[in-house]
Each structure stands twice: as C-alpha cells, then as structure tokens.
Amino acid sequence: MPSGKSAQSSEEDLPPFPSPEISSLVLEGKPGAKVHYTYYPPSASTPHRPNPFAQSLVVFLNGLMLPRSSWDQSIQSFLNKRINNRLPYPALLSYDRYGQGDSDRDPDDKEPPPCHGHDCMSAVHALRQFTLQIWKEHLDITNPTVFPSLILVCNSIGCALARLFAHTYPGTVSGLLFLNSIMANSDFVSLWPNPDTPGFDPHTLPPGVSEKDVRETREMYRRMFHPDAPNNEGLSRRNLATLLPQSDAPKLEGYGGQGPYLTVVGHDWETFAEQSYTGILHTPKILTMTYANPAWQKYNEGLVKITDEENAIGPIVAVGCGHFVQKDGPGFVSDELVSLLDRVVNRVEQVSERDNGG
C-alpha cells in the first residue's frame, strides 16, 4: 500500500491502534440493569506469530471514588508501548460496577443510594458473570465453556475484590497488579490516637499536633471511610474485615495451579500526605506521616505474601502518586502492567526462543 512516505515506512508498518467498543450489557440473573464497559480487542494472532495472550483478559477494577474512565490514560499508554514495540497484547476491559459511572444501580438493592445495598461478595459474583459474558461474546464464541486467564489491575477496594475473586474462583487469575490497596481489615478511625481514651497522654502526639487536630482527623475519617459509611455505589464494606481479616491471607491459587504473579504498589508517602492535607480531609501532614503511612506500608508488606514468594514483587512505591495511582501516574501503571505481562508469559517466551535456537 504505497503512500508516498517511504521515509516513514517504519511508522507505517506499525500495527493499527485498536478501536474500543464502548457499550453495555445486562448480566444474567440481574434483568433491567445495564453494566457499562470499554473493551479493547487483543492484538491479532498469525500462524508465524501467535499472540501468547490470546486466552487472557486484563480487567481493570475501580475503587469506590473513580469510575472506569480513570483507567483511560493508563490503557492508552500501555497500548502505545506495546504497539510501538510491535509486541502482542491481550484484550483489555474496564467497567463501571453497579451504581458507578455510567452503570445502573444494582437491581437487588432495596434502598436508594447512598446505602449498604450489597456487599463485596455480591460484586465478586457479578464480576465473574460479567467476565464470562464478555468472554463468550467477544473472544471465545466457538468454545464458550473455556474461561480466560484473568489479569486484574486494581485500585483501592478493587484490590480487595480481586483477592476475594481469586480466592472464590481458584485457578482463574494469572496476574494481579495492586495499586494502593484498601486496608480491608481497618476501620480507618483506629489508625489515629484516641484522645478520649482513659490515661491518654497528649505529649505522645507528634510536635505541633493538638488533641483537636486528632479528633477532627478521626471524625473526618469516620464520616468518609469507616465501614459504616454508605456510598452512592451501594457497595457495603461492613463485612469486609470479616471477609479479609488479614493482609497476608488467604493465599491464592492462580491459573495453572501456582500462585498468581503479583505486584504490590503503595502510594508515595509525601504525595499522599500532601494530598490529604490540601484536599477535603485537611489532615495535618505529620499525622499522615506518623500514623497512616506506616500502617499502609505494613499492610502492603502482608499482601506480598498471598502468592508464591517467587511470583511476588513489592511493595514498591509509585513515586509522585497518591491513593489514586492511575490518576496521578498512568505511565507508571502501564509500565507495571507491561512488566507483569512479561512475567506471566516469560516461561512460554523462553521455551519458544530456545526451540527456535534463540
């Protein structure tokens, strides 16, 4: 296909950028409510160069506060890197859970939002049905009984959902990228000292911090982050600490019987403290640095242990990123996804290279 631009032939030879399908579907068993999604098909397979990700599906799992559109820049960055390097890529899927973004409310919720309409296990079962229907419709029409190898890229409570999914459906998840996981076993109020505890010594507080500062911080976190706080999604966290009481358990069984490949990412302490102070929380930075950041670091250190030791990386720091890593560092997210994919298929590629004398 001559174009008169032979000097740019290397660019012209690049595979086309995939067009996303932006659509919705109704889950079986949940009539009358649409789940909206954005889907990118996988790169093409050829007899001479099969796509090692042909049986894989990357699913992006949102936190409570950002919809699926928060992943758009990370996805664009990832696809640009794969295409510019002429590397294959799997199908990519972002979606809004019930009550999020463009999606309808969960039809099983009894109360209007904000509410505690359904719990995380309900969201996990919906995710299973959703991925199954997407797989049947888009990728495995001729053999719909086969379930894909899932790679879950998650932020905040999305990480808890991914853990519950992988534990509930063992053997389905081959890779996990945790981006500042929610501390699923925390009430987010107990992170801070309680000035009303008998015998409390105000001299134990960091320099420049008053009892009033601590009370205000505890109250703000109670109103916004305590498991009893309802949300517009209707996703209740009241039983989350019971579902996931430990950060280092349960241990997960991934695709093919081994533990899934896992990368645990934590926020940048300084960035998170600054955002917590300048945002709606107004938490004094020294409080975040003294209490919240160490607790989160300890939690992330536990998360690394939920898979086989040789399959885990982290916790690493998303430099310059606060809690919403995909918002602050989409390039970082795409880099870590590239790295995770390489680990997931590394054995296949090494065998292939040896067979070809490489």
TrEMBL record:
Q: Where is this region: Disordered?
A: 1-25, 98-117
List compositional bias (Basic and acidic residues) regions by residue number. Answer: 102-117
| UniProt name for this protein | AB hydrolase-1 domain-containing protein
Q: Which SUPFAM superfamilies would you find in this protein's record?
A: alpha/beta-Hydrolases (SSF53474)
Protein species of origin: Trematosphaeria pertusa
Q: Give all residue intervals belonging to the AB hydrolase-1 domain.
A: 58-333
